[in-house]
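Lab manual, section 2.4: Encoding a predicted structure.

Procedure: take the sequence of the chain (148 residues), apply the prediction step described in section 2.3, and record the output as structure tokens. A sample record is shown.
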Amino acid sequence: MVDHDTAGFVPDSRCPFCVALAALPWPDAGLERLCAPHLSDWRRLQCRGWNADPAHQQRAGMASWSAFSARWRASGGLCPLSAEAVRKYVTPEMIRHPFRPVSPERQQEIYRAWCAGVVAGVVAWLAGEAPADPDGLWASTDVDVIGS
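Recorded output:
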């Protein structure tokens, strides 16, 4: 934590920590931001709270596993476990074949199908034969891609 008895420390009237610690009057308008010295204190306290919460730890562990699994499966040419994991953690460029390159067009097709929830047919796709497109689910290009 920051030592506020240091000479030269000027409390920031927009920082809730400074206002409370320096006993400044609470402003009528909301406090805008944390000052630089208190931002690291806030993050430290926030992480300490997350680390003490078993439910948060379980959710973080599941998210980590889901991200690892989705990326690992895509890089090995395996179908994902869920469309949600693909949408959150996979980009088309991550989709690979274990033994040969996959064209960018084929990567896009597979990605759109996976995002639409169609996770079967990977072997056919990677062999160059796209499975039937039910109702044009993956023909559209309006799928959100990470980073776009």
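Check your result against the sample. Confidence is low (pLDDT under 50) at residues 143-148.
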